[in-house]
Amino acid sequence: MRDNIVIKELKSSTTQEKAFKTLVEKYKERLYWHIRRIVLDHDDADDVLQNTFIKVYRNIQSFKEDSAIYTWMYRIATNEALSFLQKRAKFYDTTSQELQQKMIENIKADEYFDGDEIQLKLQEAISTLPEKQRIVFNMKYFEELKYEDMSAILETSVGALKASYHHAVKKIEMQLTKL
């Protein structure tokens, strides 16, 4: 089902439940991996994904349709993931950078992480990036999103995103060549 039809059905009380299930089925995996690359932990990603879909459901009436629905949902997912990390850092009374390092250490024990040593080193290098660069890198490298879509999701200019991605790639290359 096309997104514009799903949106129309989401905004109708008689078809909302069915349309929402369709939306969840279509985007849950993409959103899960987007969130997972931010929060790193499987269980945390599941929680953030659930919160994302709750917000989508509660706020669909206010969706203005001036962007694609996946762009809107990615923005919600990104904000939910970042809010989750901020709350977690505050709870542990630590900086977000220290929290990222702790989360990388937890990846090694994560039964859902099936990457090899190179994947782990890449994740470690990505975790050293500033938050914006980390998100931009993940969206471009792993999700292969276009800069225009990323611009709508992150509400920033294409030029700024290109610069962030370029700097992220250079920092990751430096990290990986130090090994």
TrEMBL record:
> Any signal peptide, and if so, which residues?
none
Q: Pfam families per the record?
A: Sigma70_r2, Sigma70_r4_2
Q: What is this protein called?
A: RNA polymerase ECF-type sigma factor
> Coiled-coil ranges per the record?
none
User: Where does the record place the RNA polymerase sigma-70 region domain?
Assistant: 23-90
- What species was this sequence derived from? Galbibacter marinus
Tell me the GO molecular function terms. Answer: DNA binding; sigma factor activity
Family the entry assigns: Belongs to the sigma-70 factor family. ECF subfamily.
Q: Which UniProt keywords apply?
A: Sigma factor, Transcription, Transcription regulation
Q: Which residues form the RNA polymerase sigma factor 70 region 4 type domain?
A: 120-172
Any one Gene Ontology biological process term? DNA-templated transcription initiation
Q: Which PANTHER family match?
A: RNA POLYMERASE ECF-TYPE SIGMA FACTO, RNA POLYMERASE SIGMA FACTOR
For this protein's source organism, the top of the classification is: Bacteria, Pseudomonadati, Bacteroidota, Flavobacteriia, Flavobacteriales
